[in-house]
Every structure is written in C-alpha cells, then in structure tokens.
Design goal:
Shape: globular
CATH class: Alpha Beta
Number of helices: 13
Distance between the termini: 24 Å
Structural class: alpha/beta
Strand order of the largest sheet: 1-8-7-6-5-4-3-2
Oligomer: single chain
Mean pLDDT: 93
Number of domains: 1
CATH superfamily: Phosphoenolpyruvate-binding domains
Low-confidence stretches: none
Length: 305
C-alpha cells in the first residue's frame, strides 16, 4: 500500500531533500513532466526531481508561452504532479502573476500545493519564452521586490525561491551577473541563468555568485546543450530539461496520427508504443488489485458480509 495512492514523503520532507540536494555537491537532474504519469517515470528512472514548465503547461492548454496561464491553472497542475512521486517538484512561476502582493500569494499557494520551490523571472509582463528575441526586463529594484514578496510569504524556510534573469541577451552578460548578485543579496536561494550560449558564460556566472545555480538545457534554443558532466565541472547545482518529454511525446503522437490518416490503421505503429503491460507496471495495477483483495473481498466473523 505504501505510496500507492500518493507520495509517501511529506511536502516538508521533499523541500528539505531539495535544499539538501542543492547543497550536496551533486548535480540535481530535474526533467520536466507534463503529467503525473510522466513524473512517475522520472522518479522510477532515478532522477533527482521533477520540473513543471510554464511553457509546457501553456502548450498543453493550446496556448503560447506569453503569460496567459493563471495561478489557479499552474498551481493545480503543479499539485497533481507533485503528489505523484516522492521527488521534490520545482515549478515555473513566470513573473509571479502580477504585482508583489500577487507574487506573495503565488508563493503561498505553491507551498500549499506541495511544491518544493518555484522560480520567478525578471521579465516585464506579459513575459515571453526565454529563448525568443524581443524580451524586456524590469528594473533590478522591481525584481528584488518580487523576490522579497515571495520570501516573506513562505512559511517553510526550505521552500526554494529561485531568481531567473533573462538579462543576458538584452543588457549583456555583465549586467545579468550584476542582477544575479542583487537577487542573491535579496535572499534568492538559487539563480536561474537563462539563455546563456556556451560554457564560458556559465563559468562566468559561477565565478560571480556564491548561491546555487540552475542551468536550463532546453532544445532548439540559444544555449549549447551541455552534458551533466560538463555542468558538474562548471560547478552548477541543478539542471532542468523543461520541454524534452513534451517534445518527444508530441513528435511520436504526430507521426502516429499521420500514419493512421494515411494507412487507415495503427497496426504498423505497435512497435513504437508503450505496451499495455508496461503502463500497468508503471501504474502498479497489481498492487491496487492486491489492495482491493485484502481489504474489500472478505467475510466478517459471524457470517456477516
């Protein structure tokens, strides 16, 4: 029965594990999950955490990543994914859903949702995907207000408040590093260095700030795809693969639908599908059946049923 209907770890335990992992000297590998089922696979394979991407959540709703999703939508999906595994789940809070008071409320709601942390970015509202051109950032002082609001609102000190800076492609790397220092001074637990190009940029950030650093290894963007070993050598503490699982899934779905459209059957696709037995294994069907047999299929003493 352990963990059958949800996580066996408390939200507090997960947050403590996340903070410990960031300070452990071991790179925390955190793939994105677009559903609780994907999160279960992330946990089974042995990754260190689960990430909930704002871009993925938007795309799953059929929307572009331009700040259209609501706090309720994001927190609701985050809660479902966080509850699916014992891993800490880290979520994208975009620009905080409004002004500092909104940011404070978002942090509280994410904490109540069982999440281990969130990241806030210094883009203006409405934001856009971090690897697109034409972004704009708010003044450093405004971002500091966002961070301080989130920090003031959290109740569990292990809830990670991460500051993402998108300034590298707008104001230059030196300005982005200055922002990162200011965000760390304001109390950010981690810095998310968005849309850097290559190892030299990552190395400059590491030399400049003392707090944990998060790398974004998203495909088809501005950043070179560095390996876990490279990021470890650069001194980074965590890495997210935010959209990878969605891209893999959507590519396969499109191939399959086109095959059905042209061939009139999915029979030629069976070798590319997760087998029913594997899905049942991942969902622990056999244990649910045992649970049902043990508790509900019985006869009470005295003949009463």
């Amino acid at each position: 029965m352990s963990g059958l209907l949800g996580s066996t770890a408390t939200a507090s335990d997960k947050r403590a594990a996340f903070r410990f992992g960031l300070q452990s000297g071991q790179l925390q590998r955190i793939p994105g999950a677009f559903s609780p089922l994907v999160a279960k696979l992330v946990a089974e394979i042995g990754f260190d955490g689960v990430y909930v991407s704002g871009a993925v959540l938007s795309a799953d709703l059929g929307l572009p990543d331009i700040g259209l999703t609501t706090l309720t939508e994001v927190a609701g999906r985050g809660a479902q994914i966080a509850a699916a595994t014992d891993l800490p789940t880290f979520i994208d809070a975009d620009t905080g859903f409004g002004e500092p008071l909104n940011v404070a409320r978002a942090a509280s709601i994410f904490e109540d949702a069982g999440l281990a942390g969130c990241h806030l970015e210094d883009q203006v509202n409405p934001k856009r995907c971090g690897h697109l051109d034409g972004k704009a950032v708010v003044p450093t002082a405004d971002m500091v207000k966002r961070l301080r609001a989130a920090i003031a609102a959290r109740r569990d000190p292990n809830f990670i408040i991460c500051a993402r800076t998108d300034a590298a492609g707008i104001e230059g790397l030196s300005a982005a590093i200055d922002r990162a220092k200011a965000y760390a001074d304001a109390g950010a637990d981690m810095i998310f260095t968005e849309a850097l190009t290559g190892p030299a940029d990552f190395e400059r950030f590491r030399a400049a700030v003392d707090v944990p650093l998060l790398a974004n290894m998203t495909e088809f963007g501005k950043s070179e795809l560095l390996t876990a070993a490279q990021l470890t050598d650069l001194g980074y503490n965590a890495v997210i693969y935010p959209v990878t699982t969605l891209r893999l899934a959507m590519f396969a779905v499109e191939v399959g639908l086109r095959e059905i459209d042209t061939a009139g059957t999915q029979s030629g696709l069976l070798g590319q599908m997760q087998h029913r037995s594997r899905l049942y294994e991942l969902l622990r069907y056999a244990e649910y059946n045992q649970f049902d047999d043990d508790i509900f299929n019985f006869t009470l003493e005295g003949g009463h049923r």
